[in-house]
């Protein structure tokens, strides 16, 4: 099976964790697209009452088109479960997200959720975080100063660019600076340093957040429990 089939497997398996009357956070990315399709099928076939909360315009548009009732994160009192993709997950269930530049909205929804489930293909499970460049979201004003500070700290920053060479901007019109560190030895220390830097809105380390990981593997879907 190729990577897309493994993503589909994980996305469809995770849709089984959805119940009637849930407020459901919907993440962002190609794996999430499969999950949203599967949830929409269940909503239709089983007449489930689900309220979706999206982490990006892309996901909200897809879910609405497929008939899932949507609200914004500010309109719901809490979220029961959020199902989202990830770019890397280590053996301690710590992760990197933000490959789709939606990590700030994803973290807002994740931290408003009682449970978080991640859906990945098996290539995302790693021994150590950091091979995937760590995304940060940075306010454009003064972003060259932030960039310089990240470079001085030895974090190998690069502005994320579109194909035409312009800078990628997030939903909130901020820039994305990716940190090409190759390995992250101390994720909590790095997170603590990054969130203290003025101009950085959010960064893509998602630590101590996930409860379950659904992995698409060549041997079928595997559900890993983080016991938190
Ligand atoms: O964090 C994300 C978007 O900001 C995605 O969840 C992550 O990039 C995984 O995407 P995909 O399922 O397409 O591999």
From TrEMBL:
GO terms for cellular component: cytosol
Catalytic reaction equation(s): aldehydo-D-ribose 5-phosphate = D-ribulose 5-phosphate
Binding site residues for substrate: 28-31, 84-87, 97-100, 124
Alphabetized InterPro entries for the sequence: NagB/RpiA_transferase-like, Ribose5P_isomerase_typA_subgr, Ribose5P_isomerase_type_A
GO MF entries: ribose-5-phosphate isomerase activity
Family as reported in the entry's similarity comment: Belongs to the ribose 5-phosphate isomerase family.
Name of this protein: Ribose-5-phosphate isomerase A
Organism of origin: Lactobacillus selangorensis
Higher taxonomy: Bacteria, Bacillati, Bacillota, Bacilli, Lactobacillales
């Amino acid at each position: 099976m190729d990577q897309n089939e493994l993503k589909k497997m994980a996305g469809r398996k995770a849709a089984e964790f959805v119940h009637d009357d849930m407020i459901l956070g919907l993440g962002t990315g190609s794996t999430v697209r499969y999950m949203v399709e599967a949830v929409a099928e269940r909503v239709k076939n089983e007449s489930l009452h689900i309220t979706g909360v999206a982490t990006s315009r892309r996901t909200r548009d897809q879910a609405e088109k497929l008939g899932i009732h949507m609200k914004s994160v500010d309109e719901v009192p809490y979220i029961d479960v959020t199902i989202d993709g990830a770019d890397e997950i280590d053996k301690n269930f710590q992760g990197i997200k933000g490959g789709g530049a939606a990590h700030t909205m994803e973290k807002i929804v994740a931290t408003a959720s009682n449970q978080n489930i991640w859906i990945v293909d098996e290539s995302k499970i790693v021994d150590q975080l950091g091979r995937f460049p760590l995304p940060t979201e940075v306010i454009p004003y003064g972003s060259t100063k932030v960039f310089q500070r990240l470079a001085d700290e030895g974090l190998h920053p690069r502005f994320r660019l579109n194909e035409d060479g312009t800078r990628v901007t997030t939903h909130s019109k901020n820039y994305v600076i990716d940190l090409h560190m190759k390995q992250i030895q101390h994720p909590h220390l790095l997170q603590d340093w990054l969130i203290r830097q003025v101009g950085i809105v959010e960064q893509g380390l998602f630590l101590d957040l996930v409860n379950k990981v659904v992995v698409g593997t060549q041997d079928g879907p595997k559900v890993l429990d983080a016991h938190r």
